[in-house]
């Protein structure tokens, strides 16, 4: 009995050690993604835990040498959809016409003055930006976090979200437009920007 | 439509998704000559740069990570580890073997136990399930038969100790490295509402060393799990109690403030070389006990 058991323990020991060395370096990134999806630290921690439990359960099917980070993110995304989405408070729907109108005003000012006032975002704090990201819908939030914060390529994002690459491209473009406008508007309300600049046009 | 494509091309360019140099130059020219595209490029670049610079990622603490990895094994009831153990359990001859070992062990214990290795006669009361010694033997058998799954697989003593602490073991535990052996992991068992620390080592030749450790103060307050007063006093005096149960060597000893029950299937004469517990952090009061 003991030799059989020894080999069982050896195999599982190795599997666990291998899982830990592959998966542990991505834990903070996954936690941040979970925070952006759930907007709550406790729920985010639980989501990370569920993700890792599932990942370990299927780790023997994970193809070594492939992208472990993207694989973990996909598991998290699916776990969120299946188990957490219903209990997570969704942000208010945004009015695209409002966004578009404001964006066009900024654009008109830029075209006229040939100046975006790049310093406008200098006064923004990290928390204010995170708050703005939280107000995005899940699909926009996901592409922004995966591309601009985690640095995934379009192909990887398409794999994680199981969406066509063309969808990712247009979704990302739209998400940035919305986020930029929200931040610009916020900066303007906080007095970080010369309010008159847009009105003057 | 063409505008939309151009705008999305700007996104692609900003994100470094375009690899073809001809296409890159084409987009650069368009951005240069078209104010709307230039605006698009500026907003996307600025936003990307701002997110990169200003958003500080949150981090899980080391203890949160450890706790999470511990829970992975606790919650993963369908893991390969456990399912492979349950395959072993289903084999009848193994069940018979286990039964035979336990039966012979307890027969030896009852007949010869107290007189085998110790000059002083000790009342062991080994047949009672509340006895720590009997509990340790039961646990050892249960672990090797797969009935008691190892809850944390780790060769790191500190990690196993943290696991004990996080999972309700309310006394300081001692887990150290053992020469020529690997720490396999730990288990928290519950006996009448109190949690106890168990850990196990293995070597490459099919030998195991299992340890159940209990805070000595626990035995002072009418405990549900007990050792006899004689044995308690014997260990308090710096002695060590050894006994063979079939092919299992069992040792009761005191380490720091804990009473240890060690069970191993290693021949006693190999124990000094194989299981020389390292005396790190003054864990062991009596380094020469082996």
List the helices and strands and how they pair.
The complex is a heterodimer of chains A (201) and B (290).
Chain A lengths: L1 H22 L3 H12 L2 H17 L10 H17 L11 H18 L12 H9 L3 H12 L4 H8 L3 H25 L5 H6 L1
Chain B lengths: L1 H13 L6 H13 L1 H20 L7 H14 L4 H11 L1 H21 L19 H14 L6 E2 L3 H10 L15 E10 L2 E9 L5 E8 L13 H8 L4 E5 L2 E8 L2 E7 L6 H4 L16
Antiparallel strand pairs in B: 1-2, 2-3, 3-4, 4-7, 5-6, 6-7
Helix pairs in contact in B: 1-3, 2-3, 4-8
Description:
The complex is a heterodimer of chains A (201) and B (290). Chain A is mainly α and 201 residues long. The radius of gyration of chain A is 22 Å and the shape is elongated. Chain A has helices at residues 2-23, 27-38, 41-57, 68-84, 96-113, 126-134, 138-149, 154-161, 165-189, 195-200. Chain B is built from 10 helices and 7 strands. Chain B has a 7-stranded antiparallel beta sheet, sandwiched between helices. In chain B, helix 1 runs parallel beside helix 3, helix 2 (21-33) packs across helix 3 (35-54) and helix 4 (62-75) crosses helix 8 (157-166). Residues 77-94, 109-127 and 272-290 of chain B have low confidence and may be disordered. Classes of the chains: A mainly alpha (201), B alpha+beta (290). Chains A and B meet through helix 1, helix 2, helix 3, helix 5 and helix 6 of A and helix 1, helix 3, helix 4, helix 5 and helix 6 of B.
């Amino acid at each position: 009995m003991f030799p059989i058991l020894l080999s069982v323990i050896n195999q599982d020991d190795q599997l666990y050690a291998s899982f830990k060395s592959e998966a542990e370096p991505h834990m903070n990134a996954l936690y941040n993604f979970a925070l952006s999806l759930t907007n709550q630290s406790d729920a985010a921690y639980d989501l990370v835990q569920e993700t890792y439990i599932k990942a370990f359960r299927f780790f023997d099917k994970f193809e070594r040498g492939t992208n472990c980070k993207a694989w973990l993110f996909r598991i998290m995304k699916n776990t969120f959809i299946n188990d957490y989405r219903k209990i997570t408070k969704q942000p208010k729907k945004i009015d695209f016409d409002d966004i578009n109108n404001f964006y066009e005003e900024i654009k008109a000012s830029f075209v006229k003055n040939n100046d975006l006032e790049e310093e406008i975002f200098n006064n923004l704090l990290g928390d204010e930006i995170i708050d703005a990201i939280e107000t995005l819908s899940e699909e926009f939030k996901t592409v922004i976090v995966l591309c601009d914060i985690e640095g995934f390529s379009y192909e990887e994002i398409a794999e994680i979200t199981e969406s066509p690459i063309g969808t990712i491209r247009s979704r990302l473009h739209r998400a940035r437009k919305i986020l930029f406008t929200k931040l610009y508007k916020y900066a303007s309300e906080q007095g970080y920007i010369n309010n008159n600049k847009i009105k003057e046009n | 439509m063409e505008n939309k494509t151009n705008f999305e091309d700007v996104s692609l360019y900003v994100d470094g998704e375009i690899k073809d140099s001809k296409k890159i130059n084409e987009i650069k020219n368009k951005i240069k000559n078209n104010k709307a595209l230039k605006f698009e490029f500026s907003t996307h670049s600025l936003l990307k740069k701002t997110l990169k610079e200003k958003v500080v990622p949150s981090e899980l603490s080391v203890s949160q990570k450890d706790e999470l990895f511990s829970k992975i094994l606790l919650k993963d009831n369908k893991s390969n580890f456990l399912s492979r153990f349950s395959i072993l359990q289903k084999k009848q001859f193994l069940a018979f073997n286990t039964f035979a070992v336990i039966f012979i062990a307890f027969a030896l214990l009852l007949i010869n136990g107290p007189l085998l290795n110790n000059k002083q006669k000790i009342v062991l009361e080994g047949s009672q399930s509340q006895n720590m010694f009997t509990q340790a033997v039961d646990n050892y058998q249960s672990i090797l038969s797969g009935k008691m799954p190892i809850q944390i697989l780790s060769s790191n003593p500190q990690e196993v100790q943290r696991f004990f602490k996080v999972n309700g073991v309310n006394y300081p535990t001692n887990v150290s490295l053992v020469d020529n052996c690997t720490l396999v992991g730990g288990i928290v068992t519950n006996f009448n509402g109190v949690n106890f620390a168990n850990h196990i080592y293995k070597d490459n030749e099919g030998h195991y060393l299992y340890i159940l450790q209990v805070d000595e103060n626990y035995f002072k307050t009418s405990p549900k799990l007990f050792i006899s007063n004689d044995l308690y006093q014997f260990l308090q005096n710096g002695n060590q109690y050894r006994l063979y149960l079939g092919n299992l060597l069992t040792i009761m000893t005191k380490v720091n403030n804990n009473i240890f029950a060690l069970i191993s299937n290693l021949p006693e004469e190999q124990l000094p070389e194989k299981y020389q517990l390292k005396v790190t952090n003054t864990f062991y009061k009596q380094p020469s006990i082996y």
